[in-house]
Amino acid sequence: MAISKKDVEHISKLARLGMTEEEKDLFTEQLSKILDYAETINKLDTEKVAPTSHAVPVKNVLREDKTEKFRDTKAIIAGAPEEENNMFSVPRILE
Amino acid sequence: MELYKLTAHELKAKLDNGEASCVDIVNAVFEHIKNTDDKVGGFVTQTKQHALNKAKDIDKRIKAKEKLSPIAGIPIAVKDNMCTKGTVTTCSSRILENYIPPYNATVVEKIEEAGAIMIGKTNMDEFAMGSSTENSAFKVTKNPWDLETVPGGSSGGSAAVVSANETILALGSDTGGSIRQPAAFCGVVGLKPTYGRVSRYGLIAFASSLDQIGPLTKDVTDCATLLGVISGDDEKDSTSINAPVPDYRKLLVNNVKGTKIGVVKELMGKGISEGVKKAVKEAIKKLESLGASVEEVSMPTFEYGVPTYYLLATAEASSNLARYDGVKYGHRSSSRQDILTMYNETRREGFGPEVKRRIMLGTYALSAGYYDAYYLKAQKVRTLIKNDFDKAFIRFDVLISPTTPTVAFKVGEKVDDPLSMYLSDIATIPVNLAGIPAISVPCGFSDNMPIGLQIIGKAFDEATILRVAYTYEQNTEWHKSKVKLTAA
Amino acid sequence: MDYETVIGLEIHAQLLTESKIFCGCSTKFGDPPNTNICPVCTGQPGALPVLNKKAVDFAIKTALALNCRKIEGISIFARKNYFYPDLPKNYQISQYELPLAEHGYLEVTVAGTRKKISIKRVHLEEDAGKLVHKGASGIRGADHSNVDLNRTGVPLMEIVSEPDIRSPEEARIYMEELRRILVYLGVCDGNMEEGSLRCDANISLRPVGSKGLGVKTEVKNMNSFRAIQHALNSEMKRQKEVLDEGGKIVQETRLYNDETNDTVSMRSKEEAHDYRYFPEPDLVPLEIDRAWAEEIGKTIGEMPVKKRERYLKEFGLPEHDVSVILADRELAAFFEESVRLLNKPKAISNWVIGDISAHLNEKKIAISKANITPEQLVELIKLIENGTISGKLAKDVLAKVLDTGKNVNDIVSESGLTQISDEGEIVRIVKDVIKANPKPVADYRSGKQTASAFLVGQIMKATKGRANPDIVNKLLKQELAQ
Question: Does B377 sit within 8 Å of A35, measured CB to CB?
Fold first, then answer.
């Protein structure tokens, strides 16, 4: 089942990946090939099989409700590409 | 005496008897790096000053007769996807080109605590996505055995610098084979621990349910030692397991008598090159001669490993990489009229093509209408693969296969064919899907290029795969072969 | 055409934990921007979440109080993927397919009738950050925005009702009762203005008698009980108009504007969100067993509904008193202990909801921090009853107790405020006052009843307010009759 260019455009929107026309074409071709290959898993009968969503057979990993101050909050803000009043500054959100 | 050519355990002996100092070792290593890394290109960042300072400190402590870890004073290289506080950590990506983490990964804390000396961060496939290190945004690392071939990936930088003696120890990460495959290509030892054995806190995530950090070393002894240091439960990582850490080094015995070995049938047939098959068959004979009992075992779901992986890993990755948006850290595009443009352009500029491909694949696999057919189905196949292993481990102690279908391919050979690149992980991927440990040890050459033998074990049974690997190593000479890098 | 209104409410409650849901940062409200942050809640590369046990305890507690049939068993966290600058990882860790609890209900009284509103699910998730828009008063027209991540990672509990609500008024009542329960349980402070309790609604109309559901719209930005009722009223009317004119309802999100008392469509060019939910691989499954649920159940005590019934029946207290006392769990405990010591619920209630509550509100403290104990309140009431002090003077005594923390009896004896009840002493003063005020006495004797009030005043003045008023009245009447 090939993936169409329209699909690629839709996914690139969902993933916030800007794309040139050439990239769209290239990816449409490459992703189609990969998906065709990925679909070979449909050959297997998995009707009575439970999915493995967690690799470890562990439950209830919890922590106590204690505050622990992170000492280097300044270093976190220092990483901001743009900062104003100790906040992360972003361009306008609405078009 | 060229200190940089030795193993950690050999250097420790020299440190203990005063034959060499840490500063000597560090200087020797950096001198060699100066002469070598322009050809190999394994390092993204070198931390010479930090290393010398640490070396001086360890020397003092040795003089004071302090009891130190077996890796104290030993140079170690860290793959550039593990956060090192205050030192730039890039994942070999433009989007994190200048990112300075405000914290250390837990494994980094552990090796620092043990007194190991970090000498630099190594090159990798961008965000650990690749099998050749050609997907790095900065440089292509070369295989020290033949500079026109790839070192493998995604921990190609770490494997290459160990192989070229530019470091004594290295850390890599493995999601679908990213430690073992480059270890095989570069003729070094690489181990992927059981999922949950080593903390992932501070490992920049690719596929959360598959990623694990592990050692890349010159021999099995060093591998066991380093594994012991980095293993253990971490309260900061909910998926790390509270299981006791054996003394892996102590458990290394030269003995496989009665060990039941299963050879994976599907990985000894078509799709594997003749040269690789030959070397692996001989390795199997060797193990048999040492007392192991060997039988063939069929793992029929193995052929579905790669497609399953490329749905699950990419799905998790598409979500893990969403945070790289130019808001809080890393690259921000100069096209920023509004936030949507900023997101789109930042990610378009910051990510390489393989990363974009995988994000797209993963987003698609999770998207409305496709989740059941792709993601959910893949999770079910994952269960079937796990079941195959469970069945096999009733009969066998370990399983064996070639680590890779071929020896290292040429730089540029597979870059335009993503699918063929993916297939180089055919032997390693099922192991990650099942969450079990595996090691790759050198087992010969084909066309003068190294071949790796993969030994797979039960969950939390790293001790057994290490013992089998050690026995094999001690009864062969492969680990003594060294690269001969010609001067520029 | 007669339509039936169908409403479902989705509530988000910030939980009163000390630390965030997945990291140790403080949840304290109002601190300077980006001071309660760490690698985990700011989505730094490589950081991982670890679940706060107290958040789970609170959610279990709420689920029990809401009579959820499914609490024990496995629940899973999931990633809800979307891009927004207040969401550092560009996914929210929430719960999707296997929430913490399901199938509960809440009872409300609407127009005198008891009704059950079914609760579909209760689950945990993390809060997002705060945006400060610059260049305009809100997000519209802003030229840039600043992100404060203090709030990211604060635990949220989401409670989703079935579409069982049938009017805007009912929606308001449901919200009020739910808030009451959450505050009573101590899991949320219920502050809608500050955003620690939020409400979104889904509303649709259908012809009376039909069983299917009409097209629904989502209504957001209702920040008070009043707003909920008004917003839904407005939307209900709008939908009716559209349907009456033969139009179709467009499924959309509408924002309530409390100035215009209207809802406005949030029609945006963006397509409907595809959240691409999948199980959170960085967290392991949660399993709640019977022992855990029972342990939490023990901390709930008697639920507000049962307590309310008991207060009304057993104590015979009026509705108003009951509501005030039950709004504060500690106050209710104080009240009950006092009644246990002295079985005079109305007298005790008067003090509790009167002077004591006024003091708590003024000082902004909880009863546990105030200088009054059930024993002391009971002592005070006893002193009034046995005539040692007057009711009026008791108010002053209480005020002094609350201010100084001193013992009731000590204050009473120190200040010499004990009531004079000795008839011999009082009659002497009455006689003196009568002698000293011939005109008022004459007025009274000639039929002007009110003149006695003046005389009472004089007697009180002479005794510094300490004379027992009943005895004064009795003796004055007696003397004047002579």
Answer: no
CATH class of domain segment(s) B3-260+464-480: alpha beta
Residue ranges of alpha helices (H) inside B418-461 are 418-422, 429-434
Amino acid at B68: L
Q: Are C368 and C330 in contact (CB under 8 A)?
A: yes
Domain ranges of chain B: 3-260+464-480
Q: Give the single-character DSSP code of C167.
A: S
pLDDT, tens digit (0-9, with 9 covering 90-100), for C184-195: 899 999 999 889
Q: Peptide bond preceding B154: is omega within 30 degrees of 0, i.e. cis?
A: yes
Q: What per-residue confidence (pLDDT) applies to B206? A: 98
Q: B328, C43 in Cβ contact below 8 A?
A: yes
Under an 8 A CB cutoff, do C281 and A53 touch? yes
C165: closest CA among C101, C199, C119? C119
Q: Which residues contact C258 (CB under 8 A, 6 or more apart)?
A: C223, C224, C227, C230
The set of chains that have 3 or more CB pairs under 8 A with C is A, B
Kind of pairing between the strands at B398-402 and B260-264 = parallel
The pLDDT tens digits for A21-56 are 999 999 999 999 999 999 999 999 999 999 998 777
Q: How far apart are CA B171 and CA B214, in angstroms?
A: 6
% of residues, chain C, pLDDT over 70: 98
Binary contact (C39, B209; C-beta < 8 A): no
- Sequence-distant (≥ 6) Cβ neighbours of residue B296 within 8 angstroms: B262, B263, B265, B268
Which amino acid makes up residue C278?
F
The minimal CB distance from C46 to the residues B105, B319, B325 is found for: B105
Structure confidence by residue, pLDDT tens digits, B404-413:
999 999 999 9
Integer CA distances (angstroms), B185 to B309, B403, B481, C223, C350, in order: 22, 9, 14, 62, 85
Distance between terminal CA atoms of chain B? 23
User: CA angle at residue C238 from C234 to C240, to 5 degrees?
Assistant: 120
